[in-house]
Amino acid sequence: YAFCMMIPEPGDKREIYSFGLKSDLGKKIKSVELLGYAKELQWEQCEDKLVLIYPEGVGLKTSVCFKVSSQ
C-alpha cells in the first residue's frame, strides 16, 4: 500500500521511487488500485519509480490510499 496524506488535483502525477523496477523491492507490479475508486487507474512502472495519475471524480476528502500488487 502507498498513502498520500493530501488529495492530489485530477491529472497530478504521484511518483513512488520505492516501487521502481530497480528499487530494493525490485518486483514487477501487476496492478494498482485507488481505494474508494471503482474505475481503472492509469499508472506506469519505470526502472526507477512507479508513476500514478490521479483521476477525476474521486471525491476523497482527507487522504489517498493506493493498493499496489506485485507478481
Question: Largest sheet, described in full?
Answer: 3 strands, antiparallel
**Unreliable stretches covering 5 or more consecutive residues:** none
Separation of the first and last Cα atoms: 15 Å
The number of helical elements comes to 0
Question: Kindly state the mean pLDDT as a whole number?
Answer: 93
**What form results from the Cα inertia axes?**
elongated
Q: Tell how many strands the DSSP assignment holds.
A: 6
The gyration radius over C-alpha positions equals 12 Å
Strand order of the largest sheet: 1-6-3
Range of helix content: under 10%
- Secondary-structure class: mainly beta
Element pattern in H and E = EEEEEE
Q: What is the strand content?
A: 35-45%
Explain what the structure shows.
This protein is mostly beta strands. It is built from no helices and six strands. It has strands spanning 2-4, 13-16, 29-34, 42-45, 50-53, 64-70. A three-stranded antiparallel sheet has the order 1-6-3, with no helix packed on it. Strand 4 (42-45) and strand 5 form a beta hairpin. It is elongated, with a radius of gyration of 12 Å. The model has no long low-confidence stretch (mean pLDDT 93).
